Amino acid sequence: MSLAPLQADPVLLPETIARALFGGGDLAIWQEALAAFLGAFVVGNIMLAMTGVAGPWAKRKITAAFTDRIAVNRVGPAGLLIIVADAVRLLGKELIIPEGADRPAYDLAPLVVASSALLGFAVIPMGQIFGVNLMLADPEIGLAFVFAAASIATLGLAMAGYASNNKYSLMGGLRAIAQNIAYEIPLILTAASVVLFTDTLQMSGIVAAQQEPLFTVAGITIPSWFAFVNPFAFVLFVVANLAEVGRNPFDVPEAPTEIIAGYQTEYSSVYFVLFYLGEFLHIFLGGAIIATVFLGGPAGPFLPESLNFVWFVIKIWAVFLFTQWARSAVPRVRIDQLIEIGWKGMLVMSLANLVLTAVIVGVML
Amino acid sequence: MFLNIGPHHPATHGVLHLKTVLDGEQVADVEPDIGYLHRCEEQMCQNNNYRHQIMPYPDRWDYTANLPNEWAYARVAEDLNDIEVPEYAQILRTMSVEFARIMGHMLAVGTFALDVYGDFTATFMYAIRDRELVQNILEDLTGQRMMFNYFRLGGVVWDLPEPREEFFEKVRDFIDDLPEALEEYHDLITTNEIFQKRTIGTGVIDAETAKQYGCTGPVARASGIDYDLRRDDPYGYYDELDWDVVTEDGCDNFARLLVRMREVEESAKLISQCVDLLEDWPEDERDIQSNVPRTLKPDADTEVYRAVEGAKGELGIYVRSDGTDKPARFKIRSPCFNNLHSLEAMAQGEYVPDLIAALGSLDVILGEVDR
User: Fold this and answer.
1) In A77-224, which ranges are E strands?
2) CB atoms inside a 10 Å sphere around CB A276
3) Cα-based angle A273, A278, A281 (whole degrees, multiple of 5)
4) What's the start-to-end Cα distance of chain B, in Å?
5) CB-based contact B118 A337, cutoff 8 Å
6) Interface mutation vs chain B, best among A334, A335, A337, A340, most B CBs within 10 Å
7) CB-based contacts of A219, cutoff 8 Å, min separation 6
8) Closest chain A residue to B193 measured between Cα atoms?
9) Cβ-contact A250, A262 below 8 angstroms
10) Where are the beta strands (DSSP E) in B7-65?
C-alpha cells in the first residue's frame, strides 16, 4: 500500500520558540525546557481562552438559539463581557468544603479533570498560524497518548465522587466510571480502524494520510478525510464521543434533574470553575480528536496553509455546536440503557467496523 | 441506601421531600414528605366570608392552572346558597377554565420534558412560549396573568374586553395555530425514540391501584379510568358542548403525557365552540352576574361537597355552615395530594431516573398538595 509522502516535517512549536529565542545550533537542556514550557504555555492558553469564550458566553448563546431565547446581551457587545463578569463572580465565591470530605482527593480531583484534558492537546496538530506550527510534540504513539490522557479524567471524576462525602456525588462518580469504561472501548476500537488505513499512530501521519483527493464531483475535489472514506466509523466515533464528554443523550454522570450535579454537587468557587474548564476542554479535545482523525486535521479549502489553524478552530467548534445541539434536543437515556447501548450496541458495531475495515484494507489495498 | 431527594432538588418542582430507600440505583421505597408549602389555606377560608373574601384564595392552590380552582369554590358556594348563574356567564367560565387547563398542561408537558431531557431543553421553552400566548389572552380577559380572581359568586367579574372582535380574533388565531404547535411537541418528544424508550413501560400504575390511591384527572385517565367530572357530574356549559373524554390504556409515563397533550386539543375544541356561542350571543342578554345578596348566611349545619375537574383531577371542596357568613369547616380535596401518593406504587423497583420521570408525569403542584 502506498501513502502520499509525508509533508516536509513542519517545525514544532517548541523548536520555533527556541530558534527565535536562542538562535539555531545546539541548545542546552534548560533552553529546550524553557522553549517547551513556553510552547505549552501558549497552547494551553489558547485552549483556555477558547473555553473561556465557550463556557460563559457561547454556550449560553447557542442554547438560547435552540430554545427560542436571547441569552446574555447586556454586558458588553452581544454580552461578550459576561466572560469577565462571570470570572469575577466565580472566583469571588466562597470555597465551601463539606464536612467529612476526603481532603487531598477532594482538592486534587478538579485539577486532575482539568489538566488531563489539557494534556491531550500536547500531541494535537492544530495547524499553522502565520506559518507558526502550533503543535507541541509529535510522538509516534500520538493517538494512543491522547486517549490515555483523556481517560485520566475519569479518575478525577471518581475521586470527586467519593471524596465529596455526598450520596449524589457518589452516584455520579460511579456512573461516570461505568459510562467511561463502556464507551472508551468502542471509541478506541473505532479509532483503531482508522489506524489500519494510516499504518501509524503518529498524529501528523494520520493528518498527512488524509490529504490525497478521494474523488472529484462537479469540479469539487473531496479529500480522503476518513469521515468520507469510512462514514460509519465517523458516526460511531461522534456518538461514542458524546458519551465520553458526558453530553446528552449520555449525560447521566451529571444528570441535573436526577442526581443534582453528580460528582460536582459539592464543588463551589474555583474548584467548580476547574470542573467546568475540564468539561469544556474535554469537549474541545474530543472535537480535536475527531478533527484530526476524521476531518483531515487542520486542512481545509480557501485558506493558505500558513493559516489553517482557523480551519482547526472551525472544526472543533462545529463539534462543540453539535454537543450543544444534542443537549437541547435529545432526551437522556437511563443509566442501565446507557450501559446496554454501550456494551451490546456500540462495542459490537465498533468491532464489526474494525474487522470489516481490516478485511477491506487487507484485500483491496 | 437512604437518600433524601429534596426538599431542594432540581426535579421536585417546588418544595417536596422524597424519603427514598435505594437498592443500588433502584428504588426500594419512596415516601413523599409534604408540608413545606403549607399556608393554612383552609383556615384562612374559614376566617373569611363567603361573599367576597374567599374567592382570591383558590388562585393560590394550583397556581399553574388557577381558574378551575375558582370554579370549585364558586360551585360549592353557589349550591350552598342557591345562587343561579346566567348562561352567558357559564360560557365565559367554561372558556376561561379551558384556557387555564391548557396553561396547566403546557407547563406539565414542558417540565416533564425537563425531567427526562436534562436542564437545557428546547421543549420546555417551547411549552412556556405557547403557554405565554394563553396567558396573554387571559390577561386581556381578566386583567391578571397569574392570580386571575375572575370568578364571582353568581357569575364572573368582567365581560369580554372591548372591542370583542379583536379578542375573538386573538383567540381564534391561537386555536388555529395550536395544532401546528402540538405537532412540534410530537416531533420533539412523543415520536423521539429515546424518549419512548425512557417513558413507555416505566412508572406503571394499573387502574385498580390508581383507584385505591384515589388518583383522578390525567393520571387516572392514562390508566384507562374513564372518569371526568365535566361529563360525569356536569356543571357549567359542558353538557351543551361537543367534546370527548381522553383516555389511554398505557398506564405509564408516556400515556400520562399523551393524555395531557390530547386534552389540550379537546380544550381547544371547547374554547372554539364557546367563542362561537359568545360571538352570536344577543347583546341585551349578556348577563355576567346574577343578583346575589350582599351577605350570605346559609342555614346552620348544612353540608355541601362539590367538585370540579381541575387540570390535575377532581378538585372538591367540602363546606359545613354554622349560620354565620363564614364557613365553619372548609376542606379541600386536592387531586395532586392523592396523585402524589401513588408515586410509591409507580416507583417501586424503578431506577432513580424513572422515579423522577414518574414524579414529573404526575404533574404535582405543591401549592395544591400542601394548600
Assistant:
1) 128-129, 132-133, 213-217, 220-223
2) 21
3) 120
4) 31
5) no
6) A334
7) none
8) A331
9) no
10) 17-23, 26-33
Contacts of A251 in chain B (CB under 8 A): 118
Q: Which candidate, A190, A280, A285, A279, places its Cα nearest to that of A239?
A: A190
Cis peptide before B163 (omega within 30 of 0): yes
Q: Tell me whether residues B25 and A328 touch, CB distance under 8 A.
A: no
Q: What pLDDT score was predicted for residue B102?
A: 92
Q: Which of A19, A68, A208, A122 is nearest to B131 (CA)?
A: A68
Q: What ranges do the domains of chain A cover? A: 84-364
Q: What is the ipTM of this complex?
A: 0.78
Cβ neighbours of residue A48 closer than 8 Å, sequence gap 6 or more: A118, A277, A281
Domain B40-370 CATH class label: mainly alpha
Sign for the CA dihedral angle at A190, A191, A196, A197 comes to: positive
Q: Return all residues near A103 (Cβ < 8 A) that are at least 6 apart.
A: A97, A163
Cell of residue B24, nine digits: 443500588
Q: Do B353 and A329 touch (CB under 8 A)?
A: no
CB-based contacts of A110, cutoff 8 Å, min separation 6: A156, A160, A267, A270, A271, A272, A274, A275, A278
The C-alpha cell 424513572 sits at B354
pLDDT at A3 over 70: no
pLDDT digits (tens, 9 = 90+) for B285-326: 888 888 888 888 888 888 899 999 988 889 999 999 888 888
For residue A242, which of A197, A305, A194, A184 has the smallest C-alpha distance?
A: A184
Contact B121 A329 (CB under 8 A): yes
Helices (H), A199-300: 203-208, 226-229, 231-245, 256-259, 269-294
d(CA A36, CA A16): 10
Are B124 and A257 within 8 A, CB to CB? no
β pairing state of B17-23 and B26-33: antiparallel
Side-chain half-sphere exposure of A37, counting CA atoms within 13 A? 7
pLDDT tens per residue across span B242-299: 888 888 888 888 999 999 999 999 999 899 999 988 888 888 888 888 888 888 888 8
Where does the pLDDT of residue A68 fall: very low under 50, low under 70, confident under 90, or very high at 90 and above? confident
The secondary structure element, H or E, covering residue A188 is helix A167-198
- Whether B93 contacts B236, CB under 8 Å: yes
DSSP letter assigned to residue A77: G
How far is residue A301's CA from residue B317's CA, in Å, rounded to a whole number?
72
The DSSP line for A290-349 is HHHHHS-TT--SSS-GGGTHHHHHHHHHHHHHHHHHHHHHSPPPPHHHHHHIIIIIIHHH
Contact A122, A42 (CB under 8 A): no
Closest Cα of chain B to A167: distance in Å? 7
Secondary-structure breakdown of chain A: helix, strand, coil percentages, each rounded to the nearest 5 = 70, 5, 30
Give the helix/strand (H/E) hosting A12.
none
Distance CA A171, CA A161 (A): 7
CA A315 from chain center: how many Å? Answer: 11
Q: Which three cell numbers stand for residue B51?
A: 361573599
Residue whose grid cell is 381578566: B142
- With an 8 Å Cβ cutoff, the interface of chain A facing chain B consists of 63, 66-69, 167-168, 171, 248-249, 251-252, 255-260, 327-337
The residue among A69, A175, A257 with the most chain B CBs within 10 A of its CB, best to mutate, is A257
Interchain CB contacts (distance < 8 Å): A and B: 83
Q: Nearest CB to A258: which of B1, B121, B356?
A: B356
Determine if the peptide bond prior to B7 is cis (ω within 30°): yes
DSSP-derived pairing of the beta strands B314-321 and B303-309: antiparallel
Where do we find the cell 465522587? A161
